[in-house]
Amino acid sequence: MFRICVLIALLLSCAAALAEKADLVLRNASIYTVDASRSWAEAVAISGNRIIFVGRDSDVAPFIGKHTKLIDLEGRMVLPGFQDSHIHPITASLKSSMCDLSGLLSIAAYIEKISECVAENSDAEWIHGTGWSHELFSDDVQPTKTMLDAISSDVPLSMNSYDGHSLWANSKAMAIAGVDASTPDVPSGEIVRFAGTREPSGLFIEDHAQSMIMAVKPPYSAETVYAGLMEVQTYLNSLGITSVQDALVDIAVGGQYSILPTYKKASSQDELTLRVVGSLYWEPAKGMEQVADLLRARAENSSGLFQATTVKIWYDGVMHTRTSRLIEPYADRETDSGTSLVTPERLIELAIVLDGEGFQLHFHADGDLAIRESLNAVEAAIDANGRSDNRHHIAHLELIHPDDIPRFRELDVIANVQPMWSTYPPYIEDLIENKIGTERGRWLEINGSFLDHGVMVAYGSDWFVTSPNPMDLIEAAVTRIRPTMPLDIKRNSEPPLPGEEVNVIDAIASYTINGAFLNHQEETTGSIEVGKLADIVVLSENLFEVEPVRISETKVLLTIMDGKVVYDLLAVD
Ligand SMILES: [Zn+2]
To answer: Ligand 1: distance of its center to the CA of 345 in Å?
Structure first.
């Protein structure tokens, strides 16, 4: 017996001596691994960019060598890096170089801010802004070119709404774009005109209309955009984000933001600290000829941490401008059921072709009919091409018809949910009271019902529209109450859209392993397991122990991406 023991002891110490030594070991931690059995661990060892050990503190010793950095986390929570499945990082980063109207509370404040921007940039070729909200306007008082002309008639001005679905321009910008009373209406969306005339008022709704102005606006310089990406990825790392799907990557040469060449350059120079899947933009105004451009864009730009393997189909609009495409008309406009940027026939045609080419489709579908028709398009693609592993997903999903919920699972479509959108009372009240009524209102911004039907849910922030902070999104998903409100108000609030809350386990999965699955990276990321890439975050609180309305107070203390420390409040390096 004694001899057997000696033999075992020798073998164990031999194994210990042979074990690969880690560069970094996190121990005395509460590691929620998000593996298939949702297990917990105490220690994780990293060598290079790989995880080489996950388990008990008492078993990590063989992986600790002379040069291993050891961090005692004093019981803090460790999670896989967060994965945002619908975000606009570069556009968001450029907000600081725009005239930023976000958060202002009156039309007068908009006018004052735009006047300041003009005064501070008197020699600018063009001044572009963002962040205004339709809520401050009414049917009687709309944003007009007249308001902006009073600020400047010499400098072209264009101001995007906070959600990117409307553009407010002055006469100078419209003159440069050649837009006047003789300009024909657009196939979808609207060039808003003064009542009883053909004269454009200065408000442009949805892509066809907005792009008439944006096409002539001078693009941002390549240097500005690259600097924006460098800055924004540092910020996202500080929030614990290690992977994103950029929801709109314009492939036009010399386009406004030159997002595609920016990612390609950052990846090839090894300067990315995010894994990025780019959703290449299907331009609604163009036809099937653009498939060749998309194939070329994918082939020429996918390398390293950047993969341009998805196509973004911007199919309809948003509820509050009544551009979401609905089965039944808006409650306050009997003949208005919203719009679509491409026809349903074209949607089916492009889905079949792009699915056949191995692209993942990322639909923007907001209204119940838009969602139904997007599912129909995936169904048609399956009928034509057979079942693929392309993992198509539908984002936004503001209003769904309950009959369509189970179809996501049947068609292997992932629900790309924006949890913050369910939490804003005035916005929700306006939709229910004025635009869709209480019966349909039950099916606004669902989350839990998808899980009840076995549908995979991944989370996207849609930043620049809403907060990119995963702690905000997880709190919003769990409570359905707006995370940014004061604590005592949150504690005494009812969610504006109750009945769709999810638990912390599912919220974390939607932000980690499900995002990884959506991006075809679940074999290498999304959980903390031996052999996977080391994308890991350390949090100040354990999300399972903190009061749900305080989840958003949690801070990220350390972010590791691909084995490298990219954000560090623990003074590891
Ligand atoms: Zn978006």
So the answer is: 24
